[in-house]
Automatic annotation (TrEMBL):
<dbReference type="InterPro" id="IPR012340">
    <property type="entry name" value="NA-bd_OB-fold"/>
</dbReference>
<feature type="domain" description="Replication factor A C-terminal">
    <location>
        <begin position="142"/>
        <end position="282"/>
    </location>
</feature>
<protein>
    <submittedName>
        <fullName>Replication protein A 70 kDa DNA-binding subunit B-like</fullName>
    </submittedName>
</protein>
<dbReference type="InterPro" id="IPR013955">
    <property type="entry name" value="Rep_factor-A_C"/>
</dbReference>
<dbReference type="Pfam" id="PF08646">
    <property type="entry name" value="Rep_fac-A_C"/>
</dbReference>
Amino acid sequence: MGLVLYVSPIENIGVDSFKRDVAIMDTTWTVIKLTLWNAFAHVLDENLNHVEICPIIVACGLHVKSFYGTYLSTGYYTRIYVNPVNEKKTSLSTWYTSEKLARIRRDWFRSSTFSLKSSIDISNTPRIRLSQFPTVRNVQYCRVAAYACRVDDVNNVIYEACNRCLKKVAIFQGLLKCQSCNINNTVTIPRLLLRLTIFDKSGNLKVTILHDLAQYLLGCLATEVKSVLQQPNGRNRVMEKVFACFGNRAFSWVLHPPTGAFNPEHSYTVGYVLHIDWAEECMWLNKYIASKRRK
Ligand SMILES: [Zn+2]
């Protein structure tokens, strides 16, 4: 049983199948994708994304599937009820009306520019402080509210990558060589790589923003950055651009946690960067403090 936060449009799969994905959440704040196949796709429609209510769906006989993360899917024995009348449903809707954060999350899902999968991943990401980062394990991402304080040398923001595999090429006997394709004299394309240090009140961390995300955040292409760098004073202009994007501003950083032992010299990869909503952060903080008090 869950609150329906978001309903996706119907998608045709193959010749005679279609499906619809919905994001559902319960009082644990965990969001999961439920895929409604064929006839089940009609139990909800995307007009629900524009109304104030949040429907409650009760489904049984679902399959638990895994494809880049766990999700639920309808099957032969599935039964689905939307807004049934029972005690459990009433307690879930009471919870929903009393939890402002639940409505904030619903609105975030409805306006999200990310894919449904990314929205769910971001939404389920535990919030931590940077001092806790070294000990985070067994989660896909963790999330911190932090400022960017130092941008590493802008001379290294561009690297040349093999145009076949997009891996960094090495210079070998004066030739550009792609070690993974094993080709000498590889055709290369410029790629972006931003290294920053971020901090909150508890500590700091080196992070790396990879090509696609870096292009998106800076609002320009790697080729443009490369050509600016080749102009006189280009280094300063790139530095200014990076500073205009990150300087003196807090963001919500969604980070890949350490895979092995934490190394403070290592630069950890950023999955997503989100604008921060301080009101929402305070609400989560209050919830965290309240849960500590109960223990
Ligand atoms: Zn290659």
